[in-house]
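Support reply, case 0932

Customer input (verbatim):
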Amino acid sequence: MDNASPTIEIAPAPWLSPSGWAWLIGLIGWCLLLFFHDLHGGAYFEPTDCWVAQTAREMQEQDHWLIPQFSGEQRYQKSPGAYWAVMLGSKLLGRPVDEIATRLPNALSATVMVFIIFVLTRRIAGERAAIFAGYCAASSAMLLYWSHRGASDLGLAALMTLSLASLWLATAGDRPRWQRNALWMVGYFSAGLAMLYKMPMPLVCVGLPAFIYVLARRQWSIFNSRWHLLGLALFLLPWLPWALAVLFSEPTALAKWRVEFLDRFTGDLPNVEGQRRLAFHFIYLLTAALFTLPYALSLPQALARVFRRDGLVQRDGMWFMFIWFVSLLIFFTASAGKEQRYLLPAMPPLFVLLGIELAHFFDPRRQNHPSRVRWACWAIWTLIPLGFIAGGIWGLPQRLSSEGGFIMGDILPPYIILAGLISVGCALAAWLFQRQQKNVSFIALVSTVWLGWLWGWSTLLPLLVSQAPMREFADLLVRQVPAEQRAQLRWIGSQDSRVIWYSNVRIPRIVDQMELLRRQGGQRSLQREIHLVAEEMITRLGSPEPILLVITREDYDRFMRDAPAELAKQNRTLPPTYIWFESTLGSRKRHLLVFSNQPPPNYNNTTSVPSTTSAPHPAD
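Our regenerated output:
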């Protein structure tokens, strides 16, 4: 990436230049360092991470590989590929399922994704743009953060990226027949692996961009090959046997899949009903900007470049990247169920387009308006430090109140150092840009992000994402519920996977999810579920058999308020209940507590009496 800025070729040479190889080897080396850095430390696991980690842990401990298991329940709604990847990593490392084994697949997926972005960009816009795209992706907030998550979404996105990249490369240019057929097979098989990893997302995330591209370019002739039949077989091979085995063993699984997949899209799933509001339709625009930091300001120009005539880029490839991103953006926006992680499969083409734009933006031959550059530099020199100051004044106290477990004096020193690193690094990059050292400016920006990440991950994120309330409750479970009584534990509602992971205490739901679905005739209704769970709670509490119920403080107060009144209409009373213990960190309504139909071991019946109201209450 020297100052000569070599001309971008439309049809790249078969091999990289010596300097291109050096940049690529350096890129992969930095990816291995950054994406595999301190996988055991940093931020504590979030709920989606724990679902993967704990399920893999239980499947491995029980040596049960077919049906995912979580907290003693069969988890039919998820295909097992992500859990198998964690278990395989655990086996290869010779260690139990832990943070390292859980994060390992995503660290590898992030590296693979950067390489694919490099290859795609080189094919479309040449070597220089590929270098910018690769280093842009490797220093993006998305890949630095998600490489250290345990959730299955990045692995899924990497497989779908490989599939779409292979399918497009098979059609791009004049390839020998054997290369084209081989790329098609890779595309089909990697889409099948993605189905095994997390079905049924690849049907849309691979099928929709591919179909729109063929339709827009009128390339129906590519289907005039019997190799597609073999490709279809390779697509079905990884996941269809598993899906059939599940259907034969559990007929209700089909209803579960319909609820989890179709109802999530339409908004009929109870836990996504609140995402119908207008504001949620813009969530992915903000997500795309967050994922591409610190390059988000170049997004409008990167997308606009698709519509400009440029003889130095392959127009067909630009349009495919645009179709890939926009089609998935529209699909996820139309879906009622929204999570930021769902957009991950749409991001690789955006990094390709960003790389092409950044290669132009940082081109030393490009003349900039001096006054605009000067104003931009002053904005960077002032706004970034002010942003960190604002975050310290307003953001950190809010995080402190929600997380708990640490004081402001713990978090300020690493935060100030991070703020200084980022502010000085960005100021240096802006100054170099102003001095026409544009390639060096880009290197300074990338290096700043990497240094900030290496520092922040190990020092700041363990506090910002401490999961202290859930770790506290997990510790209480282990210390205050004797091992011989843990089989009596049941969870009200859906488990918080963090408690299960950090305690490794298995707490099934009071009504198994598949049983709950059967009782509702395969149709989920939140109000019906609340009624069924409440009835089961009352039945268990009235039984002579001991029961320990885990519930949030908000749901407990609602139950103790509403249940007696409802039972009074039936000339029934709520059995006596006893609170055993309650967490103390974070928002009170989100505290978790354990209550029972039996007094706790330290209960003193001379000082308090059983009650069916929320206050006064034993041990409350």
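We compared this against your earlier run and they match. Two observations from our side: Residues 370-464 form one domain. The chain is about 60% helix and 5% strand. Please reopen the case if you see a mismatch on your end.
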